[in-house]
Design a protein that fits this description.
The chain is of the alpha+beta class. It is built from six helices and eight strands; from the N terminus they run E-E-H-H-H-E-E-E-E-E-E-H-H-H.
């Protein structure tokens, strides 16, 4: 059987010129830091330029001065504040009542047995407080240092063999590759690839997303992983 693994992609750290890091943010792991990712989102999702991304996508009808996002008296701009907000946001907790049901316990056992945890890693731990990361531009504070969390993801790139991600294509990655995201959470999943996460949410003791098509099953989700190894479907049939 082919080995299941994600691809480590080193990308530029936008706020630290000349430095690179392992991509962890964005569907294509195109950013190594939360600040870089936030600046990209401000530009490409909201059209707001910043010191990190000072160039407009288009100059057509542009009458605003650049960069749109200017720092406050404390020296921090909105991208900084947004990054801090995201960094301080607590991950959704597991449903204590649902996680104790026989169905969820059995689902958790199967999750381990058939190898989902190879990529959807259950537990990770942050670096110690005081560690400098992102080209020495950020020092991990005590509030975030040596914390155990449960992402159910490895934040690496995986070729899942579907076509929905072509619009996210970036140079240097396969068009079908995307971030191995967490499988928990209660937000609505609007496209088929993301419905996989909601199917797994039930198995991991988290309520499924209310907007997910009820016809999308755990079996459907497992079948979408065949490209990761070429032989995963027979194994996933255990579900």
């Amino acid at each position: 059987m082919a080995r299941l693994c994600g691809q480590v992609l080193r990308v530029p750290i936008v706020e630290a010129a000349g430095h690179t890091g392992v991509g962890r943010f964005g569907w294509k792991d195109q950013h190594a830091s939360l600040l870089s990712f936030s600046g990209d989102a401000y530009l490409n999702e909201m059209g707001i330029t910043s010191r990190l991304f000072p160039d407009e996508v288009t100059k057509l009808c542009n009458i605003a001065s650049e960069a749109n996002n200017q720092p406050d008296p404390d020296g921090l701009d909105d991208v900084d504040h947004f990054s801090r907000f995201v960094r301080a946001s607590k991950a959704p907790s597991r449903d204590a009542q649902l996680s104790e049901t026989p169905m969820v316990k059995r689902g958790s056992e199967l999750f381990d047995k058939i190898g989902c945890v190879t990529c959807h890693v259950r537990t990770l731990r942050t670096a110690p407080a005081g560690t400098k990361i992102n080209g020495d531009t950020f020092t991990i504070p005590a509030a975030l240092g040596e914390k155990t969390f449960h992402p159910f993801g490895d934040f690496l790139l995986h070729d899942v063999g579907t076509g929905e991600w072509d619009r996210h294509g970036d140079a240097g990655t396969l068009r079908a590759e995307c971030l191995s995201d967490h499988v928990g959470g209660s937000e609505a999943r609007q496209i088929p690839q993301l419905r996989e996460q909601s199917a797994h949410s039930t198995a991991m003791g988290r309520p499924p997303a209310p907007a997910v098509d009820a016809r999308w099953s755990v079996v459907d989700a497992s079948r979408r992983h065949t490209a990761t190894s070429g032989r995963s479907e027979p194994r996933d049939a255990a579900l």
